[in-house]
From TrEMBL:
<keyword id="KW-0853">WD repeat</keyword>
<dbReference type="InterPro" id="IPR036322">
    <property type="entry name" value="WD40_repeat_dom_sf"/>
</dbReference>
<dbReference type="InterPro" id="IPR014906">
    <property type="entry name" value="PRP4-like"/>
</dbReference>
<feature type="region of interest" description="Disordered">
    <location>
        <begin position="21"/>
        <end position="71"/>
    </location>
</feature>
<dbReference type="InterPro" id="IPR001680">
    <property type="entry name" value="WD40_rpt"/>
</dbReference>
<keyword id="KW-0687">Ribonucleoprotein</keyword>
<dbReference type="GO" id="GO:0000398">
    <property type="term" value="P:mRNA splicing, via spliceosome"/>
</dbReference>
<feature type="domain" description="Pre-mRNA processing factor 4 (PRP4)-like">
    <location>
        <begin position="113"/>
        <end position="165"/>
    </location>
</feature>
<feature type="compositionally biased region" description="Acidic residues">
    <location>
        <begin position="45"/>
        <end position="54"/>
    </location>
</feature>
<dbReference type="InterPro" id="IPR015943">
    <property type="entry name" value="WD40/YVTN_repeat-like_dom_sf"/>
</dbReference>
<keyword id="KW-0677">Repeat</keyword>
<protein>
    <submittedName>
        <fullName>U4/U6 small nuclear ribonucleoprotein Prp4 isoform X1</fullName>
    </submittedName>
</protein>
<dbReference type="GO" id="GO:0046540">
    <property type="term" value="C:U4/U6 x U5 tri-snRNP complex"/>
</dbReference>
<feature type="repeat" description="WD">
    <location>
        <begin position="413"/>
        <end position="454"/>
    </location>
</feature>
<dbReference type="GO" id="GO:0017070">
    <property type="term" value="F:U6 snRNA binding"/>
</dbReference>
<dbReference type="InterPro" id="IPR020472">
    <property type="entry name" value="WD40_PAC1"/>
</dbReference>
<dbReference type="Pfam" id="PF08799">
    <property type="entry name" value="PRP4"/>
</dbReference>
Amino acid sequence: MSDDDDIKYVKRQRTLHYGSLEESERKRLAASSAGIPASSSSQLEDIDSDEDYEEQKKSAPSPPAAPLPTAGALVNKIDDDFFDLETEVAKDKVALLEEFERKKRARQINVSTDDAEIKRNLRYLNEPICYFGEGPAERRRRLKELLASLGENAIKEKKNEEEERKQLQKEQESTWYHEGPETLRVARLWIADYSLPRAKCRLEKARQNLKVPSATRAGRMVELQKRLQSLSAHSSQVGDTRPLSGCAFSNDSKFLLTSSWSGLCKLWSVPDCKLQQTLRGHTSYVGGVAFRPNVQHDEKNIVAMASGGHDGAVKLWSFGSEESIADITGHMPHRVSKLDFHPSGRFLATACYDASWRLWDLEQKTEVLHQEGHAKSVHCLAFQADGSVIVTGGLDAFGRVWDLRTGRCIMFLEGHLGSIFGVDFSPNGFHIATGSQDNTCKIWDLRRRQSVYTIPAHVNLISDVKYQRDGGSFLATCSYDCTTKIWSNKTWQPLKTLEGHDAISKVGSRVRGRKVSNLDCNGLNSTVNFSVSEIIYVELQRS
């Protein structure tokens, strides 16, 4: 064993130099452009870092020449093995500078120290007004940081957007007035000339009634109420094979017109309940009927009655003919639920389920007014006795009073919690009754522009309301609780409850000359009940 065998040679570790990747890559690219293979260029780097390069070169075999890499391969290698540190550092610096700038802006922003106002501003920005464990100081700091990010005018811009939204909503909810034809101007002037003298006569009559001693008026009212309490069913008649949907008395109370789901309208004599005429022409349900004022039974070939169907068809009828003499189009396919003649008989108003009501001039044979204003379907309407204004009620639970002479909405009836199914004007000209789905009947004062009394009338929805036509001493309401009730005016005490139906959809009352006739039409068993009191004849004749 030689001495050389005892010597242990320590293999020298290869020295690793940590430097810039960019510098190495530049050397590689420079070598490639000079025509030196990539492997040779890497060996050249080892020359600078290894002192024993010469010995390794002698002992190591010469490597085969490597082919030059293509440009695409070089790019792929760069993308796979290297990334730009300077770019990443630059991004971090930019983010850090932005954070410094934001904090600087936050320190310069002035916000209120009132915690309530800070919460309101956070709410404007759609941010939580309070975090768990957050105090006023932290909340104020959070608001500053939000304003620094969104801009100092963010709160003002949010407030402006909110104001614009409210203004737009207000414009959408405001009453829309259609531009009417020239015939509308003629109709308005005619209505003004017609209604003003009648209003004057009504006021003069009211002044004369005030001169009557209060004791005399109270005594008459007590006697009338006693006689109303004695009302009872006079007769009952089968009205149709399908449920009855509406009814109306003639101007002289000698005839009654009924409508049915069968599409037929029938004319009955009062009080013997004999069928006088059957009106045929509707192809669907008939919802509302009305008698034209100041038309006698012996007058032929003139419009005396009107009816509206669920398909939007409105037909005009005359005495003595089973076929309509005229049809009004323009509502289809929307339902016409109620119609009413102007006190003059010249105009016809129709309530339509397209959220509008129409006014038709029968002399000019044209539509003079198409009025919107309700958010939902218009179900009922009624003219004032003077003919100057009209009230409408809709399924949106609101009512509106319209001045026909100017076309403006002069009163908004707000207070019901359900759809309004019945409206009527008192003969005094300034009281309005409305019946609603909320089971209540409200009395409105046109002079005070508000509700003056609420009658908890029924235990189910109220389908119609009617004032006594001559004097308005009592009010009749009908309901789906199968009852019709009579209420005294001013005190609104219940005087009489009329029962006998399964459900009641319409009620009509008419005081004319010597007797009072109360009508309630059944919605299920297709009968019509008349209540006639001869005792009222004695009272009304003596008064």
